[in-house]
Design brief:
Helix 2 (25-33) packs across helix 3 (44-52). The protein has 7 helices and 9 strands. The protein is 30% helix and 23% strand.
Length: 235
Amino acid sequence: MLSSKKLKALQKYIDIIEINKGKTIGEIYSHITGEKHAHFKKGASGLIVENLLGLKNNSSPKADLEDLRVEIKVLPLQLHNLKVKEPTQIKMINFLEVAKETWETSKIRDKIETIFWIVYGVPRDPETKKNLSQDNYVLLDWFIDVPDGIKQEIFKKDWELIHSYIVKGKGDELSCSMGEYIEPKTKGKNNQDTTLAPDGKGGITKVRRRAFYFKKNYTNNNVVSELDLSSLKNE
């Protein structure tokens, strides 16, 4: 259940999104900076939306609204099929830290208790079937996600599976195919991008960097399904 305290804290962000619904990322960028920009680097759209809300771009392991345990996530939606474009990162996996946690003490819980989703649409060229440039992406809608007890139990089951591999020294055997709602996705450019992890024998080894991600299965069925996309009926 969403508390009035959390709703009041989120109201200013809701108002900003409502005012900017239907605007392109290019238009929002111009509004924020006062300048035009023809080419955005990968991931720029999410950062621009965060800047619109006045949020600092960071990779903190804590929730964005830390005291309230509210996380703010920006979600790209493919307009041609109304499916999410990719899994959504929750937080990096600190293998040594996670190995010492239980589900009850795990830091990931702060980031999945309440999630304020902001969704933008990714249009594609009808002829080439390729996505248009990021300045054409469109701000669509928002959704306050308060996963109920059933969803939290699935989160717990997924986390405990990942945790079991970590404590056994099998960090490099983790796979994106694991989990129903949360997956351990690799991060970094290649196999040489590693971090420290338990070796399962009381020592330390190195494994590929990974992060906890919401699977597309979760966001498609629990976030996208709750959006008001009536304005896209003729897309």
